[in-house]
Amino acid sequence: MPSMSHAASPDGPGRPGLEIDDLHVAVEDREILRGVSLAVEPGTLHALMGPNGSGKSTLAQTLLANPAYEVTSGRILLAGEDITRLPTDQRAARGLFLGFQHPEEIPGVSVLNFLRQAMARRKGIDDFSVLEVRMKLLDWTKRLGMDTRFTERYLNEGFSGGEKKRNEVLQMALMEPDIAVLDETDSGLDIDALREVASGIDAVRKERSHLGILAITHYQRLLEHLVPDVVHVLVDGRIVATGGAELAREVEARGFDAFRERAA
To answer: How far apart are CA 213 and CA 222, in angstroms?
Structure first.
């Protein structure tokens, strides 16, 4: 059953948690994003849909501050602060989280140690308690239906696709971000794994009512489990349509070509 749509927290700030303002991005001197603007308010779930090659991954990598992606004009604001030129770690410390489409394996670094370092950076505490991290991990692995031994494994090494994506949700829970950008979280998941991952995302949202999420996806199937407040359609580097959850169903029924023709 789809989850209930979350309204913005009445106690949250009035300004958007994440604001992308007329963003133009080039890769190797080729413009990919051509003036993207959107705003994710606290407590809301926005979905960004688009065909392959539309610029979805470019937007995710730009939000990550990947140096291969050059912002030629426009701004990225987090809680009103311009973070366009900040490096990845400073964006994360300010409350921006990115869930990867293809999480990397890091041999020799356990999930526990990785999260301890990440949480220390987020909270600004150099000597963050291992015990506190372990207790939070045990709590969230149980809530997400994960084996507690999972935390001792090396990060993503030998993980199935579903385990990698659930580990991303686990990181999101412990990092306590204000804005989470989920880059094709549904990619490579079967129906059961997708349901588990979506359930985990919903559990984090219930815990953090002011969390804003931008879910980047190619298909509607993730949105059958997580009902979006707003849907944006990205085609050829531009947002060509914005609407409610019904827009995702229109994309599913008509395909992206109809939106490309509309934009033209």
So the answer is: 13
Stated as kind and residue range, the H or E segment containing 60 is helix 56-64
DSSP bridge partners of 87: none
Q: In the chain, what are the helix, strand and coil shares in percent, each to the nearest 5?
A: 40, 25, 35
What distance in Å separates the CA atoms of residue 112 and residue 21, rounded to the nearest whole number? 36
In tens, the pLDDT along 133-187 reads 888 888 888 887 787 777 777 776 767 767 778 888 888 898 899 999 999 887 7
The distance of Cα 157 from the centroid of its chain, to the nearest Å, equals 22
User: Packing angle between helix 111-123 and helix 130-143, nearest 10 degrees?
Assistant: 110
* Contact in structure between 106 and 171 (CB atoms under 8 Å): no
Q: Which residues pair with 4 in a beta bridge?
A: none
Residue 5: per-residue pLDDT? 41
Q: Which of 25, 179, 164, 168 is nearest to 92 (CA)?
A: 179
Distance CA 188, CA 165 (A): 10
Report the alpha-carbon distance of residue 224 to residue 207 in Å, rounded.
Answer: 21
Contact 8, 39 (CB under 8 A): no
231: left (phi over 0), alpha (psi -120 to 50) or beta: beta
- Whole-model pTM: value is 0.85
